Amino acid sequence: MARPPQRDADVAVVGGGLVGAAIAWGLARAGQRVVVLDEGDVAYRASRGNFGLVWVQGKGLGMPEYAAWTKRSSDNWGQFARLLKEQTGLDVRFSRPGGFHLCLLEHELENRANLLARLHNQPAMVKYDYEILDRDRLKTMLPQIGPEVVGASYCALDGHVNSLQLLRTLHAGMQQLGATYLSDHLVEHINVADGEFRLTTRHGDLRAGKIVLAAGNGNARLGPMVGLKIPVRPQRGQIIVTEKVAPFLNHPIVTVRQTDEGSVMIGDSVEEAGWDVTVGTGVLAAMAERAVRMFPQLGRLNVVRSWAALRVMTGDGFPIYAQSERCPGAYVAACHSGVTLAANHALVLAPLIAKGSLPAEQFGGFSARRFDVPAIA
Amino acid sequence: MFRRLPDADDATIEVTIDGRAERVRAGDTVAAALFSVGIESHRTTDVSGTPRTPYCMMGVCFECLVVIDGVGNRQGCLVPIRGGMRIETQRGKREVDQ
A314 has which bridge partners? Predict the structure, then answer.
């Protein structure tokens, strides 16, 4: 009897964005033979349109596991950036100087304080410090603020990174570790047979022992092929980028940050707009106006780019991580925080996928089964 | 490097370039005026600090960025020079306050 030809990979990762590339890097580092199947240039590419925060404060109201997972990734980020630099020589410019959420009205600050109090009062909430700052205290830490800023919340764990450099570095790193990257390989279909996965693309089939669905909003289409329901939808965010200026803002603000190269990014919009990635001057104007009230110096700067990109939003905003029960070996990772969570995806999630299971005590809450609760009649 | 066309008007105005008083031709752009007094590198780049010289002189290449009357990142090739202007070649990034 002829032996079947060798599989193309131990693991096929579907999606070459930040989530897929971080997992692929971690899998390759764990000694797995990895193939990454990516879309072509027509892909929506949340990974090339994001804001670049590595953000902790305010996350996890309704799911303390997400708060703990986020903090853990933030804590892992320094090591992650060091490992990438040692391996590839590329610096992703991670820094964790502490971040602010600025408020322009008294009631905004009140709401912010209430939200964070509720978040941190949850049973089983991970412990970390945050502060609500009045204008005087804030001014000593952030003297650039404009006269309308009434206060802020602050968390020393918040940071940021050059997220385009991160994507490039992960791609370089995973390929140096032996992973194969295939562009223009949209996965059309997935078949499960003889204990392995066959992924159909326009360039032919690939066979892998395991698969990881990390295709962003494409996961909604792919999941059911391997018995996973993955309810994700696009949520539009718009971003403004200014010309580069000498460093003047050394802390990231949740809606404004100065990049390592000097550009100022402004972005805080959330819109349900389907797959529409056009920018709207109304939203951009509102974003710019708020940013200038926070930092009046910004009003002098020229805008050089603006764009819209699509977040990968689950039903409750929290990530989905699971292994399929119907097709063991098929995993999903879907989230809108591909930058913040990259360290965990690479250093925690990938090694577990390599070993073959996601421990229920740690990942049970992240399963998409939480969306199956029947409505009460 | 540059020579005037023979039909050019010779009227001049006084401006300040990198702190020095200079007489330049009225009607020139800021970038042309800098060339006319022998300044070839009008800026250094904002990330690596490499010296650059204007390339297109028509608003496309952004290699002519200078500080005009205290405002950085102005495209010298698109700004007509005026008497009394203070022009500085730009070193690296502009400042947010100027």
Answer: A232
